[in-house]
Please model this.
Amino acid sequence: MKILYMGTPDFAARMLFSLIEAGENIVGVVTQADKPQGRGYVLTPPPVKKLALEHGLPVFQPYTLKDGAFEKTLHELSPDLIIVAAYGKILPPYIINFPPLGCVNAHASLLPKYRGAAPIQRAIMEGETETGVTAMYMDEGLDTGDMILQHKVSISPDDNFGTVHDKLAESGAAAILDALVLIKKGCAPRTPQDHGLATYAAKITDDDMKLDFSLPAVKLHNIIRALSPVPGAYAYVAKDKPKLIKIYASSVNSDDGSTNKPDVAPGTVIKAARGVISVACGDGTLNIIEAQLEGSRRMTAADLINGRRIQEGDILKLI
Model:
């Protein structure tokens, strides 16, 4: 079986590695263009490209797939199956419909929930306790194709985007290999999705990163962990010169008796002592565990207190 693989970030690289380890016949790897990274804006290849080159696989980085731009290469490679994981571009019909065994996608959610660009972050934001990977046949819709199988993954209260991403990458690698076994045997199921249960996981924007402390502490905690370690949820410490603060780790304390009082405004730091920073919210209290003030490094709550960077009475808000 000749396989064409399409993917870009670390999530996709883990699945490509599982296919390489399994000895699958990968005739080509399609990934997005190298991008400048870091302070020096050094042109850096995506993780999938790095892995493919390390294993001597042909790499293709088409600027566009539209208007048949990749059709000639597709015919030359003549794959029996295309596997896609977090490629980052919408595939036109001529690619989806080319391979005789189909175009299979590994999507990081339990479809039909969280279709779209940011399924991991959105699941955590919504306080889900379970997610997973769906191996599915692609069609021309957005994550709407028939399902082959699903692997479930738990989300613990302390998980963040980074930890859930790594769990799903491992689960996705196993899901793709399991799906391949069924495809080779000719018995891979095609289970239609219940479109009435579908939800959409929109791309993360700057508005999603802003912390509004009039929200409940539980909601804020979910936003923080959904955006940690990157890109980071933020507010501003409202002093003479407001400073942006990115919060990377938090916990919820709803039983300290300091919230929901008329004289405690949401966003007020009600405790900054003994290594604990507590902030009043619309409901409950949020404890800041790790954060980064503008112009500084990431610090624990204890370091922020010891350096008098955060003090009782400070206000965290949006500006």
